[in-house]
Amino acid sequence: MMKYSFAPNVPVTLPVANSHENFPVRRIYCVGKNYADHIVEMGGNAKRDEPVFFTKSAQTIVKNYSKIPYPRNTTNLHYEVELVVAIGPNGIFGYSVGLDMTRRDVQKIAKSKGGPWSRAKNFPNSAVCSNITPSDQVKIQNAEIKLLKNNEIVQKSNISKLIWSINEIISYLKHDMDLKEGDLIYTGTPAGVGAVLPGDILLGQIDGLEEINVEFV
To answer: How far is the C-alpha of 31 from the C-alpha of 103, rounded, in Å?
Structure first.
């Protein structure tokens, strides 16, 4: 029997919709700048350049109906609703609704210095994710995606508007990274990102998927 110096971390899992299974999460990849309208609202040029990737650790995942503490070291926490692709042994396992929570003030400083986004993106409770719907139970290519903040629609678009398609993203990650079963891919957010304050309730929806509903405290 293998002897550990201390107890290993408990595996991070997400429930699989309409089953008793759980999806074991290995790693989280995120795609930046994948909706033209979001690039424009952030002051960028909406052209089809190489996709931008960054990562979050599996331990940043927050499940549905959680009460999320407002994070440290920020006064400008932003929501970003996204389609999440779950990778299985044979390709796409399923899909979820995700929120890529971002410390926007920290990101702004990092950008101004030409530094990485890690502190702005990879922090506790920054990867909100709904239960995973198996891919054979939903048609995702033309699904509507939207986010409601305190019952008001703040983001609304369609998965068909992704600059880089799901298959293209997977191809890039397979070529450049170590994409394996258990990985999640946050595929980017449309326009309408904005600030979150304690007491705010976020409701993320994508046609055919279980919604995500969380409150910040």
So the answer is: 16
- Any idea what the Cα angle at residue 212 is, between residues 162 and 89, rounded to 5°? 65
Structure pTM?
Answer: 0.95
Q: What residues contact 212, with CB distance under 8 A and at least 6 apart?
A: 64, 96, 97, 98, 99, 128, 129, 130, 202, 203, 204
- Among the CATH numbers 3.40.50.10260, 3.40.50.10470, 3.90.850.10, 3.40.50.300, which is that of 13-216? 3.90.850.10
Relative to beta strand 67-68, strand 212-216 is: parallel
Q: How far apart are the first and last CA of the chain?
A: 43
Helix (H) or strand (E) holding 184: strand 183-186
Q: 158-190 pLDDT, tens per residue?
A: 999 999 999 999 999 999 888 999 999 999 999
* CA dist 129 → 44, 60, 62, 193, 208 (Å): 27, 10, 6, 17, 15
Instruction: Name 100's bridge partners.
Output: 127
Contacts for 179 with CB less than 8 Å, ≥ 6 apart: 29, 87, 170, 173
